[in-house]
Amino acid sequence: MKKIIFLLCFFVLPFTSYAYDFTVIYTGNSYSSLYPCGHCPSSVGGGLTRRATIINEAKSKSKNVILIDGGEFTAGGALDEASINVEADKKRTAYYFETLKAMGYDALGIGETDFTFGADFLKDNIKKTGLKAVSANLSLEGVSPYYIKDFSGFKVGIIGLSPQSIAQKNSIKATDYNAALSDSIKKIKSKVNFIILVSSLGDKTNIEIANKFADINLILSSGNILSPKDYEKINDTILIRPSYMAKDVRIANIETKNNKISKFDFKKEKLALSVKENTEVKKIIPACFKDNDCQKREGLAASCQNQGSNAAACLYVEPNRIEALLITDTSCSFCVTDVTQNLLKEIFLGINFKVIDYKEPQAKELIKKYNITTLPAFILPQEIKKEKEFPKLTKFTDEKDGKFLLKPQLSGLFMLLNRKETSSRIDYFVNLYEPSMLSVLNDLASFCKKENIKLDVHFFLTETSTYGYPKEEIRMALAVKKAAPDKFLEYIAKRLTDIKNTSWADSLEALHIDYNKIKETAKSKNLDKMIDDNDKLISELNINYGNAILVNNNKIFAIIDKVKPEDLKKLFRR
Q1: Would you state the pLDDT for residue 462?
Q2: 144 with 151: CB under 8 angstroms?
C-alpha cells in the first residue's frame, strides 16, 4: 500500500508544479470600427484588415492561443466616433460579427453598448456567426456563462459578466454579478487550470472583483476604463485593458505554475497603415461607409461611392481650391492658429490660408467691415458652402456680407480688439479652491516684481463649489486687497494652500492682518463696487475657468501647466 501511495505522489507532484505557456490576444471597446482611424496619424491606423494580419502573425508564433473580444463591440453608441445612422451602424455591426468569426475569436464578452439595437439583434448575430458569447449573469439565448478552452492537458475557463443595467432597458434577466460569478467559479474550478474573467462592468467594479475572488487569474476589463495603464496587478490577479476603438491589438504571453501566473509578458501591436491588409477579411467588409473610411492620398479628396454595400468604392478627385483669409498677430509667438488651420485642412483638402497681420491696412479694413472683435479671425469664401463637409462647420460660423467667419469656439481666442492695450500689466484669474494655482501665482508674482510689471488678481469661483462660501471668500479677499494691499498676494497664497481646512479669519491671524479692519472694509460700499468690477470683468471676458491670464488688457491665454519667465518675456516683447 505504501508503495502505491509513493508512486501516486511521484506522478502527481510533477504534474501540479508543471509550467504552462499560452497567449491571450484581446480587443474590446471597439464599437465595430471596421476601418483605420480617419483623423489619426498613419502610425496609429487601426481597422480590421490589419488587425487580422497581426492576429495571424501572433498565432503563428505561439502554439496555445486564446483570442477574446471583451465586449462593447456594437456600433452606434455614445462613444462610437464612426457612427453614421441607425441602419448604417446596424450593417457595420453585422459585418463586425462576420469578421470576428473569420479571425477565429474564441470568446466574446457582452457589454451595455451591445444592446444598442436590442436583444433580438444581438441574439440573431450570435446565432448566425456561432461565436461563443459569455455572460454568467445574463439570460439570453446563445449566451453561455462560461467557455472552456482545452489545450490538451491544460484548460482555461473564460467567464463573462455584463452590467445589470442591461435588464432595465431590454426586458431580459440580468442577475447580481457577485452571485453569478461565484456560481460559475464553483462549477469550473475543478475542471480548469486557469480562469479568465471577461467583464464589461468597468475598472472600478473589476478591481473590486479582483480583490474579492482570488481564483480569477486574469480580468479583461472593458466598459468604463478609468486608468491609462495597459494592465495592473491586483494581488495575484492581473487586470488587462483593451485600446479604445481597437486601434491596436494587445497580446499577453503568460506562464502559469501551480494555477498562478508566474510570468507575464505584455505587448501591443500597432495597426499602422504600413501593416499589410488581410485579403480574406478585406473581402468581407465593404470598401467604405463614408468618405473618411477611404485611405488618404496626398492632394486628393476621397469620395465613398455606394456606401456600405458590396459595390462600395473609394473615388479620388482633385479637391476644390478654397482661398481663406486669416487675420492674426504675426509677432506673437504664443498666438497659435495651427490647430484650427489643420482642422480645416482635414475637412477641406483644397483650403489655403492667406495670413495677414492685424496691423496691416487690409486687415484693418476687414476688421471694420465685418465688425471683428477678437483674433484670430478666419474668413472663409461663399463657395465653401457648396462643399460636402460644410454642414459640419455650420454651427461654428457666422455669415457676414457673403463670407463665413469662424466663431471663437472653433477659431480660438487670444486677442480682444475692443479692449484698449495697457502696457506692462498681467491680470490673473484664480480659483481659490484649486491649490494647483498656487505655483502659477508665485511664478507670476516673482516675474512681475523682477520685470516691473503690474499684477492684478481676480477671482473665479463656481457657485457649485462644495467647500466654504464662495461669495464670502471673494468678499474677504477683496477686502484684504483694499485694506492691506501689501499683504494681498500673501493672503491669496495662504487661502490657496489650505482653504478647505481653515477659515479666512485663521489666515488673517496667521499673517498678522488686522481682523477688525478687514471685517469693517468688507461691509463697505466700496467692496460692493469691487465685487461688481470683478464679476463684470469675468463676464466681459467670458472666463469660465481659473488659471487664465490677461496680458496688457487685450491678450488672453490659458495656463495649462506652469509659467516660465522666458515665455512671459515673449508676451511683452514687441
Answers
A1: 61
A2: no
Place of cell 499673517: 511
Domain range enclosing 554: 425-571
Helix (H) or strand (E) segment spanning residue 556: strand 555-558
Q: Which helix (H) or strand (E) holds 133?
A: strand 133-134
Mean pLDDT computed over 76-85: 90
Q: What is the CA 75 to chain-centroid distance, rounded?
A: 18
Long-range contacts of 347-350 (CB under 8 A, 24+ apart): 347/389, 347/392, 347/393, 348/319, 348/320, 348/322, 348/384, 348/387, 348/389, 349/299, 349/300, 349/301, 349/319, 350/301, 350/318, 350/319, 350/320, 350/321, 350/322
User: Per-residue pLDDT tens for 196-236?
Assistant: 999 999 999 999 999 999 999 999 999 888 888 999 999 99
548 three-state secondary structure: strand
Q: Give the predicted TM-score (pTM) of the model.
A: 0.69
Q: Please answer whether residues 96 and 139 qualify as being in contact, where contact means their C-beta atoms are separated by less than 8 angstroms.
A: no
CATH code for the domain in which residue 77 is found:
3.60.21.10
Question: Which set of grid coordinates corresponds to residue 520?
Answer: 469693517
Q: Are 476 and 504 in contact (CB under 8 A)?
A: yes
Are 195 and 266 in the same domain?
Answer: yes
Q: Is the pLDDT confidence value at 247 over 70?
A: yes
Nearest to 421 by CA among 274, 266, 280, 550: 550
Cα torsion 31, 53, 197, 94: sign: positive
In whole angstroms, give the CA distance from residue 327 to residue 445.
Answer: 33
